[in-house]
Design a protein that fits this description.
Layout: H1 2-44, H2 50-76, H3 81-97, H4 100-110, H5 115-134, E1 141-143, E2 149-151, H6 156-179, H7 186-205, H8 210-231, H9 241-250, E3 255-262, H10 265-272, H11 274-292, E4 296-300, E5 305-310, H12 317-330, E6 341-348, H13 355-377
Antiparallel strand pairs: 1-2, 3-5, 3-6, 4-5
């Protein structure tokens, strides 16, 4: 009777394992399908350049390949000689690809020429080489006599590399978000929180969902970065004209429109070249964000035309304008022909006037300021 009960118990365990493996296979299939679909979406998207497309393709292919490697390791676990032959190769690929995800995300944000990205990539190559060297000794992982996968005494190397990659992404995301005028700054943090919760759930409940979570999380990241590309002016990192139109049309609170135009900008391009003109625009945009960014949204609406929509501290507008001009004046150096700026402002009060009238009034005041300033700068050939 006891023997019969034990057979029933063992049979139930095997049935449960088969059921769980079938469930896990579906999860992996979904993860791979997401990766392949996103490869197709990335290839056809018009908002990314070739470099960005290559990085996204590498990212999604890495997720799909690593998912399959983990699945292969689970399928072969306990398969005797087959396990000893194939699991080390599968795990080495998985362990080498996993830490690259965070650095690849960061590289999409910062660009591959960033010095920090280059250093991180070298460290990833060194980590992959170290794990490859340790495979024969079973120090990171090994296959026991029965063909089962086991963690080795130096398994922490893999976990440290993966954690460092995610920490690197966290730091670079914060750095990137601080440099751009973008409302959706919380999205990358939610993405990272999602991955952390998934990792904890897998560790506690022993349900292999981490690669599905990474695949889904990468969709969040794609959405975040696509939004950035579509809403941000790439030269100044301010919101672009399309964002400006959407902001104005949706504005339903009291605000102050500041129209800002760079003085003598055509003369700068004609005298120093367009590269110098671009440097001027970048500096004006950066200074504008530093001064006004905490109190509203900053936009580049045209070639040398900018706008600020203040929704906080409206009564401090004159002081902010003075601070903006003071900073620009302090940044003028011999190799940066940084001109002055003309500024005009108008307050929008819902119900008292239309948004269009407020924008038009701010424009008129800006041109009045430009005419006054032009008289003072006529000697410079503007």
């Amino acid at each position: 009777m006891r023997y019969h009960g034990r057979k029933i118990f063992i049979g139930a365990q095997r049935g449960l394992r088969r059921h769980m493996f079938s469930y896990y296979t579906v999860i992996v299939a979904v993860s791979v399908a997401i990766s392949l679909i996103m490869c197709a979406v990335t290839r056809d998207t018009p908002v990314f350049d070739k470099r960005q497309k290559r990085q996204f393709l590498f990212l999604y292919l890495s997720v799909g390949i690593a998912s399959l490697c983990e699945w292969g390791g689970v399928a072969l676990d306990g398969a005797g000689e087959a396990a000893r032959s194939f699991i080390p190769m599968l795990k080495l690929v998985e362990f080498s690809l996993t830490p690259t995800l965070g650095v690849t995300f960061a590289s999409i944000l910062e660009g591959p020429d960033c010095r920090r990205i280059k250093i991180a990539m070298r460290l990833l190559l060194a980590n992959a080489a170290l794990e490859l060297a340790l495979v024969p000794f079973g120090l990171v992982f090994y296959i026991d006599a029965n063909g089962f996968y086991r963690h080795g005494p130096l398994y922490a190397i893999y976990m440290v590399a993966y954690s460092a990659s995610m920490l690197f992404l966290l730091v670079e995301t914060r750095r990137y978000a601080d440099e751009i005028q973008f409302r959706g700054r919380r999205l990358p943090w939610l993405f990272l929180a999602f991955l952390i919760v998934s990792l904890v759930a897998q560790s506690v409940a022993d349900v292999r969902v981490i690669w599905l979570s990474i695949a889904v999380g990468s969709l969040f990241f794609y959405n975040f970065y696509s939004s950035v590309v579509m809403q941000i002016d790439p030269l100044t990192n301010l919101l672009n004209r399309s964002s400006y139109g959407g902001t104005v049309s949706m504005l339903d609170e009291e605000a102050l429109f500041l129209q800002i135009d760079v003085d003598c900008f055509k003369a700068i391009n004609d005298t120093y070249g367009h590269a110098a003109g671009d440097r001027v625009l970048r500096q004006v945009g950066r200074t504008m964000f530093e001064v006004y960014g905490r109190y509203g949204d900053c936009f580049r609406t045209g070639g040398d035309e900018f706008c600020v929509v203040l929704t906080d501290e409206l009564d401090r507008a004159e002081a902010l304008n003075a601070e903006f001009r003071r900073r620009l004046s302090g940044q003028r150096v011999d190799d940066l022909p940084l001109p002055g700026v003309s500024i005009g402002g108008a307050r929008y009060v819902p119900g008292a006037m239309s948004r269009e009238d407020a924008v038009h009034e701010a424009d008129e005041r800006m041109y009045e300021d430009k005419r006054r300033r032009k008289q003072d700068t006529a000697s410079r050939g503007c």
